[in-house]
Amino acid sequence: MENMIINDLTSENGHLTISGVDSVELVKKYGTPLYVFDVSKIRDQIKKYKTAFEQNNLKYQISYASKAFAVKAIYQIMQTENVHVDVVSGGELYTALAAGFPSNKISFHGNNKSFEELTMAVKNHVGVIMLDNFHEIELLARILKSEQQQIQVMLRLTPGISAHTHKYDQTGQTDSKFGFDVESGQAKKALEMVLNNPNMKMLGYHAHIGSQIFGTEGFKLLAQKMIKIAQNFQTDFNYWPKILNLGGGFGISYNEDDDPISPTEFISQIAAELRNSGEEIPEIWIEPGRSIVGPAGYTLYKVGSRKDIPNLSSYLSVDGGMGDNIRPALYQAKYEAVIANKMDQATTQTVHIAGKYCESGDILIDQQALPTTEPGDILAMLDTGAYGYSMAMNYNRNPRPAVVFVENGQDKLVVKRETYQDLISLDCDY
């Protein structure tokens, strides 16, 4: 049997295999478009983060940022890996709880949590609420008093650090919708309010500087600044944090131009910065999402129509598009793809990979080298595990794809494909 590795992809008999499962057989069984996750890659990445922390002798917690991909099955995987998760809505919280994930290992984020969402969090005894604004402090105070409950909280700060990434992915700078601004004194006022509320147990400080970040400089600056902020607040309030949460945003390689940092490199440099402060190092939390599930994901499509234009690149259309992966249209995100049933064939063309949605901007990949294709071939987009399904939509009334997990040669359906009946299930007659 022919068995080869192509750009870290395994091919058997010319077919892309994912954790020992033939992608062509997956398409026959589940149809297209289809999200496929290699669970072993998810577990391996979590292990790399844990090992890096332990090698640096840091107290730590890994909290999976589930906005990247939030279905019951992924929360169950995270439970088996003994990590925390963070949620950013009542819907994500409900899903995690429905999956049986322990509520005391859940962090609740968000810049506009509703009264109902906060009540839900309190009644289910979530591990920590990340306080984002003064309105939220007031709402939570009312709920805790009414429910006669106490809860652990952290303050989300905007420390004034901008990440080198897409402008929509920057969240740590002063001009941001997230968190309490440090420079203006908002953070100090918020800390005073929390410390004076007997129902709120202050755990520490959180900051997140952005997403898809490749360098370590921003994280090193963040570590320095968070320690400095903690020192200033200790002087003012005699309070030293139990936890410093440095957020997430660790980039992954979507294409050959991307050069992500390894967990070992990132954490060793952060550890060095923290030790240089000379202070007692709190427990360090990080919130990887994309870097855990992104590289583990594949999206499988069937090739359909083709448009050839003289002297220009051809358009090769597939049976999905911006409805199952909005990132190319939204962020100009770049991906790579292969023909899953022709992995042993040389490239002969460069084409635009177009989606089926009624928008001229529905281009999944601008320029992709491929072997000769024909209708019915299977195109596999790589590294689509983050923000594909979680941002999927029913534009043009297209049903959302199914999701399959594969591990050690076995496949398991974890999200059913939507049907046309599902699309109208909430519609009411006039």
From the coordinates shown, what is the CATH architecture of the largest domain?
Answer: Alpha-Beta Barrel
Helix content: 25-40%
Q: Provide the CATH top-level class of the largest domain.
A: Alpha Beta
Helix tally equals 12
Q: CATH H-level name of the largest domain... which superfamily?
A: Alanine racemase
Largest sheet: 9 strands, mixed
Q: SS-based structural class? A: alpha/beta
Radius of gyration, taken over Cα atoms and rounded to an integer in Å: 23 Å
Report how far the terminal alpha carbons are from each other. Answer: 60 Å
Number of strands: 22
Number of spatially distinct domains: 2
Could you please describe the fold and organization of this structure?
There is one protein chain. The chain has 430 residues and is of the alpha/beta class. It folds into two domains: 3-38 and 294-423, Lyase, Ornithine Decarboxylase, Chain A, domain 1 (Beta Barrel), CATH 2.40.37.10; 109-288, Alanine racemase (TIM Barrel, Alpha-Beta Barrel). Helix content is 29%, strand content 26%. It contains twelve helices and 22 strands. The protein has helices spanning 23-30, 39-55, 72-80, 90-98, 115-123, 134-147, 186-195, 217-237, 263-276, 290-293, 327-331, 420-423, and strands at 3-6, 9-12, 15-18, 21-22, 34-38, 60-65, 84-87, 106-108, 128-131, 151-158, 180-181, 200-206, 243-245, 283-286, 297-307, 314-318, 337-339, 349-354, 363-370, 378-382, 402-407, 410-415. The strands form three sheets. Strands 5, 15, 16, 17, 18, 19, 20, 21 and 22 form a nine-stranded mixed beta sheet that branches. An eight-stranded parallel barrel has the order 6-7-8-9-10-12-13-14, surrounded by five helices. Strands 1-2-3-4 form a four-stranded antiparallel beta sheet. Strand 6, helix 3 (72-80) and strand 7 form a beta-alpha-beta unit. Helix 2 (39-55) packs parallel to helix 9 (263-276), helix 5 packs across helix 6 and helix 8 (217-237) packs parallel to helix 9 (263-276). The longest helix is centred in the middle third of the chain and has 21 residues, at 217-237. It is globular, with a radius of gyration of 23 Å. The protein starts with a strand and ends in a 7-residue tail after the last helix. Residues 40-293 form the Orn/DAP/Arg decarboxylase 2 N-terminal domain. InterPro entries: Ala_racemase/Decarboxylase_C, DAP_deCOOHase_LysA, De-COase2_N, Orn/DAP/Arg_de-COase, PLP-binding_barrel. The modification N6-(pyridoxal phosphate)lysine is found at residue 67. It comes from Companilactobacillus crustorum JCM 15951. This is Diaminopimelate decarboxylase.
